[in-house]
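hey
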């Protein structure tokens, strides 16, 4: 059995719900990690919580840590069989395959389904042929060795902490693989939520890509142009 760490902010709604729960013998491998209010970091939001976990609980060795978002459902255990093989080949980070389950908006669900297509085309090209995280990593499911987490960390002020982390991986020439494991995530509950989410991603990537490698800038720039053409041609 592998330990499961639930990382939450002190004072959050979930903290109030979980703090008085007594873990039974069946849940002895589940640890509640509370990020204290006094913890100061450059990182914000989820990045701040991950950085706290790295500082306090990650070992400086080849132990492999897998991160999931709170609404992520891991659908299989393929990743457990892949880790020993890829670590022996000097790969240090992996990213999962996203599948989308519907929220309250059918339109948002249909649009979000394009992320699955993105995974099996563009992300697979970057990770499979180039072995580079040019398309970023998924916060919904990614894994990394402890020594690399300690080396790079998440302590940067950005709203797209996963993309920023991937930029640092690429600049330091760390190799990535795309896992065969699928993770189910819920699509936004409305088109308004979808637009807000994509706007946040775009603002974050636009800022973070300035410090990326030339290949990453070229990759992201090409994708931005293709998105603009796709949107325009759709309306036409």
């Amino acid at each position: 059995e592998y330990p499961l760490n639930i990382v939450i902010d002190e004072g959050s709604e979930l903290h109030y719900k979980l703090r008085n729960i007594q873990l039974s013998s069946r849940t002895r491998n589940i640890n509640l990690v509370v990020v204290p209010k006094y913890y100061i970091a450059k990182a914000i939001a989820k990045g701040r919580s991950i950085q706290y976990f790295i500082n306090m609980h990650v070992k400086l060795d080849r132990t492999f840590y897998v991160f999931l978002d709170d609404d992520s459902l891991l659908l299989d255990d393929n990743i457990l069989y892949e880790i020993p093989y890829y670590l022996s080949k000097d790969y240090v980070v992996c990213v999962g395959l996203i599948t989308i389950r519907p929220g309250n908006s059918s339109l948002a669900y249909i649009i979000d389904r394009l992320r699955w297509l993105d995974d099996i085309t563009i992300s697979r090209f970057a990770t499979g042929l180039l072995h580079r995280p040019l398309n970023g990593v998924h916060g919904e499911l990614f894994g990394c060795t402890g020594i690399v987490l300690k080396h790079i960390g998440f302590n940067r002020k950005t709203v797209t902490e996963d993309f920023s982390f991937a930029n640092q991986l690429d600049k330091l020439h760390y190799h990535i693989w795309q896992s065969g494991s699928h993770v189910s995530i819920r699509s936004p509950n409305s088109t308004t939520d979808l637009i807000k989410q994509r706007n946040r991603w775009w603002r974050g990537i636009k800022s973070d890509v300035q410090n990326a490698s030339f290949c990453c800038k070229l990759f992201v720039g090409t994708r931005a142009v293709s998105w603009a053409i796709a949107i325009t041609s759709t309306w036409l």
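The mean pLDDT is 89. The beta strands are 4-9, 30-35, 64-68, 73-74, 91-101, 141-145, 175-186.
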